[in-house]
Amino acid sequence: MNENQNKYYRMFMTTQTTLDENTDIWSSNVKFAENKTALDSEIALAEATAAEASGSSAGKTRNKAQVKDALERKLLVISGTLYAHASINDDEELKAKLKTSRSAIDKLRETDLATYAELVLKEAQQLAKTLAQDYGIPAAELTDLDTTLDEYRPLIGTPKQRQAAINAAKRTLDTHIKNANDILTDVLDKLMLRYQVTHPAFHAAYEQSRTIVD
User: Fold this and answer.
1) 37-68 residue pLDDT tens
2) Residue 54: which residues within 8 A CB-CB, separation 6 or more?
3) Strand ranges (DSSP E) for the chain?
4) All structural domains of the chain with their residue ranges
5) Which 8-state DSSP code applies to residue 29?
6) Which residues of 8-22 are buried (b: 16+ CB within 10 A; e: fewer)?
7) What is the mean pLDDT of residues 101-119?
């Protein structure tokens, strides 16, 4: 929450507490009770949305970088082995598909990296027996590469998506704060007028809680 939103949120919480402490006074007023419930809902939604709005994409970015690094390292090993096999067997078509330097793999765009990993896996799985017998690449290593690829796919574009979610949450937070304030200003403040006479202490406490403190 920004400073202005925090001011309103603190006022909401104080007002909510005052109302909760005097439930016995207003609970028989159906419309008052309905709008108090609506106020509680907007406050809860504002709190939840504020947590989302304050989120950072840093954790997601770090996790993505770690998975990407692992995928590239494993790809390089399998790619190099496949290239060596293709060279030994004069398979120029296979050689042309492969990248044998970390820099070449690292330069691939996110979606292209996933596509390249799929290509390498397909070629390696077709040669699984040969890779295990002649090059010391067991089937478990191919499975491990496949697992890492599965971990990587959902992370493609994650930081941008996360930031978009944060921005959307900030806009939604403004809406919940406005809704809560409208309930107070347009309904509860007006319904509280009756208690100015019948329950002056409650009314005074409510008025005090409605003060926005800078």
Assistant:
1) 999 999 998 888 887 776 554 555 558 889 99
2) 1, 166
3) none
4) 3-54+160-209, 58-156
5) -
6) bbebbebbbebbeeb
7) 94
